[in-house]
Write a structure and sequence with these properties.
This protein is α/β, with parallel strands linked by helices. It has 15 helices and 20 strands.
Amino acid sequence: MPICFNIETNNNVIPISVVAQKFFSDWLAMQSASVKEWLTATQFQAEAGSVRLIPDVNGKIARVVCCTAEIDNLWSVGALPFALPEGLYKFDVSDTHYTSYAIAWGLGAYQFNRYKKPLRQPAVLYLPAALLSHVSNMVESINLVRDCINTPTDDMGPTEFTSVVERLANQYDATLTQIIGEELLHQNYASIYTVGRASDDAPRLLDLRWGNMNHPKVTLVGKGVCFDTGGLDIKPSAYMQLMKKDMAGAAHVLGLARMVMEEKLPVCLRVLIPVVENAISGNAYRPGDVIKSRKGITIEIGNTDAEGRVILSDALTEAVSEKPELLIDMTTLTGAARIALGTELPAVFSNNDQVVNDVIKQGEKHNDPMWRLPLFTMYREYLNSPIADINNNSSEPYAGAITAALFLKEFVPDETPWLHFDLMAWNLRTRPGRPQGGEAMSLRALFAYLKNRFQ
């Protein structure tokens, strides 16, 4: 159980009244004279995000008022763990809202303190025992993703990330197999090997399996580039600063897998993660090289900094070989998606309208938004190569997120329902419930969709 929760309550628990802005006047009319006088005297403004502590006659906190734009927005309370003094609190809301608010509380209490001691501990929220399992699952799974992304590559390279996956496999009695180094070539994963061969930490493919083989097959694929220098097409230093997060797609599918396994969804889960470091050395792959992918499609390397799609090609080919009922890949694939949608709205592509529309609806319901971009096939010609079946880099500077998705589409048959996420996985600024740094995006929506569909 996260330290910001307590299932034990006592007489010292402080109630929190969450009031929608448009209903504040009605709420205030029902309060005691002392509450009205205090809020008036302290010039409380009923604006979204405003918080006021109301004391008792002894000067101790008797109640907290938190104003929100909409009562259904869980992020309304996300800043409270550090906005409030340390203590034990409880929401005066329905069970439905309590669940979402508790998740926001837990996410807002997150601190990455591996290398730096925290200045203080978060306030603690009373959590009814009936909510503990689900809320803890959401919070701990998302915080696992954040921890992986925030950790520098020196402590989260291919070997260290593999250790994280091993611990998770042991925790949930899953099976994990690895194909490492030159064994990738022997087993026909040349794309993964070639991208990662320049690193002194060998490339690998992680294959985690969990669940009953008779249940519906759900397969997750995550981009695991533990650091991306850009390869020989080296990135400028300013663009390399955050490249420890280029394994965020791998962290995302690991977090989603944890959610599924913790709640024991009746699915046959497979997680495929190609893990590499796109480094530079004498044996680094070069612009102009041609790689024969696992599917047999030859890939001309137009740019070594478009490496994520190359390693994913082999993983996706293996993923579709078992004909899953649903295939999801998650990536930090392109800057173009960020230019199109900004850093806080993930892009999603799909070959199945029903699936993607249902996932988007879950995103709207759970305040976990995403935006669909098209697999516009007329742009496929931008990936043509004069010497190979396809180029990993578009010949045009436009629609980079779409052409990257079209590259991946070459390795996914139309009959396999497929979702491809291109996301930032990083908060450039702190917002309620979402501190600056590594961030899990679209996971709550995806888990809600899986639970609704398969449970």
